Amino acid sequence: MIAFNRVSFLGRETEYIAQAIASRKLCGDGVFTQKCHSWLEEHIRCNKALLTTSCTHALEMAALLCDIEDGDEIIMPSFTFVSTANAFILRGAKIVFVDIRPDTMNIDENLIEVAITDKTKAIVPVHYAGVACEMKKISEIAKKYGLAVIEDAAQAILSEYKGIPCGIIGDFGCFSFHETKNISCGEGGVLLIKNKQAVERAEIIREKGTNRSKFLRGAIDKYTWVEMGSSYLPSELNAAYLFAQLENADSIIEDRMNSWNYYYNVLQKLQDDGKVELPYIPLECKHNAHLFYIKVKDINERTRAIQFLKENGIQSAFHYVPLHSSEGGEKYSHFCGNDVYTTKESERLLRLPLYYGLSREDIEIVVRKIYEFFEK
Predict the structure, then answer these.
(1) pTM for the full model?
(2) Does residue 37 share a domain with residue 171?
(3) How far is residue 284 CA from its own chain's centroid?
(4) Per-residue model confidence as pLDDT tens digits over 107-142
(5) Are 13 and 248 in contact (CB under 8 A)?
(6) Which of 22, 7, 48 is nearest to 236 (CA)?
(7) Residues 229, 346: one domain?
(8) Is residue 187 domain-shared with residue 309, that is, in the same domain?
(9) Which residue among 38, 124, 210, 238 is least packed, with the fewest CB closer than 10 Å?
(10) What is the pLDDT of residues 235-244, one digit of tens each?
(11) Residue 86 belongs to a domain with what CATH number?
């Protein structure tokens, strides 16, 4: 069976986890957490990085830092994971979905402004498949209306928009280190903070609402409860595994990019023949080969393709069911404008196996079976 995904393991993860255990400090903000913070701040050029237990929690922290409250409206695409919406619903906000662009599957920046009301508090662009949204226009709209921009960059570590890393263009950026992501520690995330004035408050929120971080730095002689917060710190075991991954981030991305490019090149004929559509990467975007997908005719053809690949020992998958069409979406959101592309394009999308260490031989098998499917 050719797996859809496998967690990358490059060798030093076990060594670093053993070091963390030997340190006798397994709770958050130990040596490896600080190493991860320093790596992220240096390589992504962010003002401050704070590891979290998940990208979900990074988004929840961003919602708290933006003072999202009951009655506020948050604009985002419906084609995303439920955490993108949940982080704001938990604060009492209403989600306003707008349609996506069919080329990148990202939020259509040209539809955002018409969705803005006097209740709008933030825009949450999602960089699907590690391909950046049109952040120039989104940033201009946000500045015009005084809105926060929170980048859901769960899939976009080391991706760029016009030479700027994803995650540092908006006010806050959120990455995921879930086992399905390029860089992983099983479960984990990080919040990137642009505004220096927000750092101290972010540390307080992350430390259960206390100023414990200042205490650990020796800035105060005891720590106390300051404001609302929660426990968002990951274990040192997670951070140790993650640091080994970050040290090899370039190798991981290069390996995935080689697989992505091979898929793209050898499947080009199917696109030329009108059988499939391949991913589109805008010139201003540098992606990270997070996933590779093809778009087929419709949901029925996709269902047959998934079954055909499964029968031939290949795991494949579709992706999000648009949130606005779900039970939760009906309760907590509304769709502004028409759903021209969100549902239609999501039902055509078929993801192929892609992970660090995927062999060229296995990719050739996948490609051969895809051609065989369309020949039939």
Answers:
(1) 0.96
(2) yes
(3) 19
(4) 999 999 999 999 999 999 999 999 999 999 999 999
(5) no
(6) 22
(7) no
(8) no
(9) 38
(10) 999 999 999 9
(11) 3.40.640.10
